[in-house]
Amino acid sequence: MWMVGVVSALPAVAVEGLPVSPPSRADKVRFAEEIQPVLAVNCTACHNAKNHEGGLMLDSLKGIVAGGDSGPGVVVGKPAESVLFLRAAHRQDDVMPPADNKVGAKSLSPDQLGLLERWIAEGATAVAAAVGKPIAWRPLPAGTGGVVAVAITDDGRTTAAARGGTVSLFDTRSGRLLQPLVDPAIAAASPEQAHRDVISAVAFALGGDRLATGSFRTIKLWRRSPPAKIADIADSAAATALAVAPSRSVAAIGFADGKLAIVDPGTGRITKTIPAHAGAVTGIAFAADGAVVHSCGRDGVVVTTKVDDGTTVAKLPRQGEV
C-alpha cells in the first residue's frame, strides 16, 4: 500500500524566536549607519564576497537583496517573508548566527532586530546618511584660565602668551602689548580669539617670523606680514631723524633746518611743524606714554616738546654736538 507524503517547499519555522523591539522614532532606518555595522559584527565573517556560505553575501546591500541558495535575502516591504530577518530572529530553521559558530558572532538584540525589521518594511534601501546640523559655536568666557603657554623669539624682542583661546604678542623689554592674534575664520563665533578652544602650546620658528599655536586637536600656523607701505610723507627729503611713539599712533620727523614735524603714521600727514632747534635734528625719542617727544640737534641742545600743542617743556644745553 502506497502512502502519499507532502513535503513543504519552505523551511520549518520556529514561531517563537527572539524578542523584537521595534523603534519608536519616525525617521527612517539608515542602512550604512545602523544595519550594515550590525551585520559586519555578527554575519559577514561567514557571508562575504570571498566566503559566502549558502551562497549568501551580507557585506553589501546588493548581496543582501540578491540572497543565496534559499532565495532573496529580503522581500522588500515584507519582513515576515524575508530570510534574513526570519533567521536572524530565530523564526526559521538554520538560524543566524549558529550557536556553535567559531567567529564569536552573537544573536542580534531586540533593538537590533527591531531596526532590521523596520528597515525591510521601509523598503530595504540605502537611505542617505543623516545631515548633521551646524555647530553653534560659543566663544570662551572672558578671562578663561591663566596663561598656560608662552614663547619668545630668538632675538628676545617679542613674547607670545596664550590664555584661554587668545594669543597676545608683547614687546619683551617694555611689556607693552603689540597685538592680539585673531583668526578671521572664527571671528563671528569667537571674536578677538585665535582658537575656539583653550590654547595649550605656543612656539616661534627660528627667525621669529612664524608662530605655531595648538589647542584641542587644532594646530594653527601664523606668519608675520611683510612690511607694506601705508603712505608717503610729503616734503620729507631733508629728514635727518625719525621716531614712532610706543602706541604707534604718532611719529616725529627731524629735519636739517632744525624743525620737528609731528606725523600721523596712518595717513602720512604732517599735523604740525615745530621749530625745535637751531641746527639739524640728529635724534628723536618719545616718552613711554607718547605725550612728549625728546629731540637733540647740531645746536647742542636736547629739547622736550609736548606732542599735542607743540610747546616746549624743557631744554638741556650740551657741550659740543649731540
Question: Would you give an account of this structure?
Answer:
The chain is built from four helices and 15 strands. The protein is an alpha+beta fold and 322 residues long. The chain has three domains: 91 residues, no CATH class; 77 residues, no CATH class; 79 residues, Beta Barrel (Thrombin, subunit H), CATH 2.40.10. The protein has a four-stranded antiparallel sheet, with no helix packed on it. A hairpin with a 5-residue loop joins strand 3 and strand 4. It starts with 30 loop residues before the first helix and ends in a 5-residue tail after the last strand. The N terminus is likely disordered.
List the helices and strands and how they pair.
Blueprint: H1 31-42, H2 61-66, H3 83-88, H4 110-121, E1 147-152, E2 158-163, E3 166-171, E4 177-181, E5 201-204, E6 210-215, E7 218-223, E8 239-244, E9 251-255, E10 259-264, E11 269-275, E12 281-286, E13 292-297, E14 301-306, E15 312-317
Antiparallel strand pairs: 1-2, 2-3, 3-4, 5-6, 6-7, 8-9, 9-10, 10-11, 12-13, 13-14, 14-15
Helix pairs in contact: 1-4
In short:
11% of the residues lie in helices and 27% in strands. The protein has helices at residues 31-42, 61-66, 83-88, 110-121, and strands spanning 147-152, 158-163, 166-171, 177-181, 201-204, 210-215, 218-223, 239-244, 251-255, 259-264, 269-275, 281-286, 292-297, 301-306, 312-317. A four-stranded antiparallel sheet has the order 1-2-3-4, with no helix packed on it.
Q: Strand tally, please?
A: 15
Secondary-structure element string: HHHHEEEEEEEEEEEEEEE
Computed structural class: alpha+beta
Shape, please? rod-shaped
In round numbers, the mean pLDDT is 85
Note the beta-strand portion: 25-35%
* Low-pLDDT segments: 1-14
Question: What is the radius of gyration computed over CA atoms, rounded to a whole number of angstroms?
Answer: 40 Å
> How many domains comprise the coordinates?
3
What does the largest sheet look like? 4 strands, antiparallel
Largest sheet, spatial ordering of strands: 1-2-3-4
